[in-house]
Design brief:
Number of domains: 1
Oligomer: single chain
Helix content: 25-40%
CATH architecture: Alpha-Beta Barrel
Mean pLDDT: 94
CATH class: Alpha Beta
Shape: globular
Strand order of the largest sheet: 3-2-4-5-6-7-8-9-10-1-11
Structural class: alpha/beta
Order of helices and strands: HEEEHEHEHEHHEHEHEHEHE
CATH topology: TIM Barrel
Radius of gyration: 18 Å
Length: about 325
């Protein structure tokens, strides 16, 4: 069981400066149906520019996430996918893919089609791994609404989990390239990424604070089946609470959401309740009991079928 920390109480007090709304997100890439909300398939779709291919083969994923995405491995194929999604009533897309050996997703060849999707009325998000200056400039020209990126604060984790010869500073530089280009960014942190251990999450939060993002997304290690991490225990709930509270305390005016990925069952329900206690502004695919708890805490629940990095209401911060 989770024991409330003094940090959690401090984080909740900070959250009170925001408006009463909390966003609950159910993009159509995954089915969601309960007494509170039912989403539509293809309302928000995930596209992979590499299909199922990924050079990194990170220990917790090994490309499994790419299998859940719509393949669009050429600009022409992406244009066809976009047109098909528009016919199905799609409202937004996340464009991502597998990384190369340097941790980069080659998005530049697809920038023109992303611009087309924008002109057709779609929200367009890009998840490009480590972003270089030229890629950031092309994404800005395309008019993407937001750039998502994982941020890792431990060199050992980068090497042993992601199989990359990169440094934590490379992730900070990636965020700064995007900021210099005028892009809206939503950095992600995987809590417990180092085989369930907490290593580098706080450093990642410090780097994120330097980049001053529009939104911060927290997820919790959930290894895919038949990967090198299958069977790894997720991080302890007290450690999860500490990282969530730290994120809120370090970023008192920045929206924070609990993203799509966390272990299922009772762990999921506990993590979502703790996230509320630690002052998050939104949660993806919440359990019904989480909706009940949010309302019991005086929060106004707002459902959305967009990505959890896009809050469905204006963020208002009261003077403190």
């Amino acid at each position: 069981m989770h024991t409330p920390l003094p940090m959690t109480q401090q984080a909740w007090k900070i959250r009170l400066a925001f408006g009463p709304e909390i966003g609950f997100f159910a993009p159509g890439a995954k089915h969601y149906d309960n007494q509170y909300y039912s989403n539509r398939p293809f309302s928000f779709a995930h596209l992979s520019v590499t299909g199922e291919a990924c050079a990194c083969r990170c220990a917790h994923c090994e490309g499994a996430l790419l299998k859940t995405m719509i393949g669009a491995i050429s600009p022409q194929a992406m244009r066809r996918v976009v047109d098909d999604l528009l016919k199905k009533g799609c409202r937004g897309i996340l464009v991502s893919g597998g990384s190369d050996a340097n941790g980069e997703v080659h998005l530049q060849p697809f920038a023109e089609v992303m611009g087309y999707a924008k002109r057709m009325g779609l929200k367009v998000l890009a998840h490009g791994g480590l972003i270089q200056r030229e890629t950031a400039a092309r994404l800005k020209e395309a008019g993407v609404d937001q750039v998502l990126m994982d941020v890792i604060g431990d060199e050992g984790t980068i090497l042993e989990v992601c199989h990359l010869n990169r440094k934590p500073g490379d992730y900070l530089q990636s965020m700064l390239y995007c900021r210099d280009a005028g892009l809206n960014i939503a950095p992600h942190i995987v809590i417990g990424l180092h085989f369930g251990q907490i290593r580098g999450e706080e450093r990642a939060l410090e780097m994120i604070r330097q980049a001053d993002p529009e939104t911060i997304v927290l997820v919790i290690l959930t290894p895919a089946r038949r990967t090198a991490m299958a069977g790894i225990q997720p991080p302890a709930m007290d450690e999860v609470a500490r990282i969530m509270a730290t994120a809120r305390i370090l970023n008192p005016a920045t929206p924070i959401t609990l993203g799509c990925t966390r272990p299922p069952g009772n762990y999921k329900r506990q993590a979502e309740r703790i996230a509320i206690d630690c002052g998050v502004n939104g949660i993806a695919y919440p359990d019904e009991t989480t909706v009940d708890y949010a309302r019991s805490q005086g929060l106004k629940t707002v459902f959305s079928e967009e990505c959890c990095s896009l809050l469905p209401f204006p963020v208002l911060i009261a003077c403190r």
